[in-house]
Specification:
Elements: H1 9-14, E1 17-18, H2 23-29, E2 45-52, E3 63-73, E4 76-87, E5 93-98, H3 112-130, E6 136-138, H4 141-151, E7 154-155, H5 168-172, H6 182-196, H7 199-210, E8 216-221, H8 228-233, E9 242-247, H9 252-266, E10 271-276, E11 279-284, H10 295-299, E12 313-318, H11 320-323, E13 325-330
Parallel strand pairs: 1-10, 6-7, 6-8
Antiparallel strand pairs: 2-3, 3-4, 4-5, 8-13, 9-11, 10-11, 12-13
Helix pairs in contact: 3-4, 6-7
Length: 332
């Protein structure tokens, strides 16, 4: 294991990933299909695109072209994403959505985009060093794109279907992303089911589906919680997680107490808190249902999930900043 799951007392106490700045916009816009009015455009969101030098977004494969998408919300800078076009190991055309590096070098990035860039760079180094070349990675589709382009390891799921493009953000990338084929849509369905079903059953299905011919890895990060409605649209179960933005104060212990109080009043106290500037974006599992036992919840840094991993996986890598991104090896 590259980084210990229990390495930081703060992570054990609150599971806070300190992702700073502008996060409310990203949370709102990447959350996928809305319950109603799918396909409607949020007029407060504006996007400008421009060409980038492919060398500005280096990866395992040489990029053929690259574009930068800069999003503004209510006339304020919100976040940036980039897309590269390249040829994969088999020579097929492929694309990848990336978090671009900040224009100014800083010891710790201050924006949500820059910080995620740093996290993915560290994760890529770990994957390249510790996952064998024949490894196959399971993740949600955009993470799969980053895994393959940045590390060269094969990602099983990399292409979105129609359901993805109902969000204002993903709709802006429509011309740059390659749509899933019918076979690849089946993969979206399988992954959505596995992430939202009982962890033990999901891992058994994964082992049965892929066999033992090659090493299988799972990658998850906290941003997958923004995609629950999209995952549900592809056939996943409704996890019924409750979420709330809780204002951050000047006293960390007071903030923790506030988060814990809300988590126990609203759900069963099993929560994940994500610090975004002046507030904590907090999720809690509901008292009804079995969402706390699902694969996604068990692999993310929810408080109860930190106590014990599901049987059948071992932690290979976990990022800093509260365990935002984790890589697991599936044990056959």
């Amino acid at each position: 294991m590259i980084k210990g799951r229990y390495g930081k007392a703060l992570l054990l106490l609150v599971g806070i990933a300190s992702l700073l700045g502008g996060g409310a916009i990203l949370f709102h816009e990447l959350s996928g299909p809305a319950p109603s009015g799918a396909g409607q455009v949020d007029e407060r969101l504006n996007v400008n695109s421009s060409s980038l030098q492919p060398a500005d977004l280096p990866g395992f494969f040489p990029a053929d072209s690259a574009r930068l998408y800069s999003f503004r919300y209510d006339d304020k800078d919100a976040f940036s994403l980039a897309v590269v076009q390249y040829r994969n190991a088999s020579g097929a055309r492929a694309s990848a959505v990336l978090f671009p590096k900040e224009s100014q070098d800083r010891v710790i990035s201050s924006s949500q985009t820059g910080l995620r860039n740093e996290i993915w760079q560290s994760a890529t180094e770990a994957i390249s060093k510790h996952a064998p070349e024949e490894a196959l990675f399971l993740s949600w589709w955009d993470d799969g794109q980053r895994i393959q382009y940045l590390s060269g390891r094969e990602a099983w799921l990399q292409k979105p279907g129609e359901e993805t493009f109902s969000s204002s953000v993903w709709g802006a990338f429509r011309s740059d992303l390659i749509d899933a084929s019918e076979k690849e849509r089946d993969r979206l369905h399988y992954m959505a089911r596995w992430l939202t079903m009982d962890a033990d059953k999901a891992l058994n299905e994964i082992v049965e589906y892929f066999g033992k011919s090659r090493p299988i890895y799972l990658l998850v990060n906290n941003d997958v919680l923004l995609r629950l409605s999209e995952i549900k649209a592809y056939g996943g179960s409704d996890l019924g997680l409750k979420n709330k933005n809780i204002p951050a104060g000047n006293n960390l212990h007071g903030d923790i107490a506030q988060v814990k109080r809300w988590a126990h009043e609203t759900g069963e106290g099993n929560y994940l808190a994500h610090k975004e500037g002046r507030y904590y974006r907090t999720w809690v599992t509901a008292t009804e249902g079995n969402s706390k036992d699902t694969l996604l919840v068990r692999l993310l840094p929810f408080i109860d999930s930190l106590k014990k991993l599901p049987e059948g996986v071992s932690l290979v890598y976990q990022s800093g900043w509260g365990g935002y991104l984790s890589v697991y090896k599936v044990e056959p």
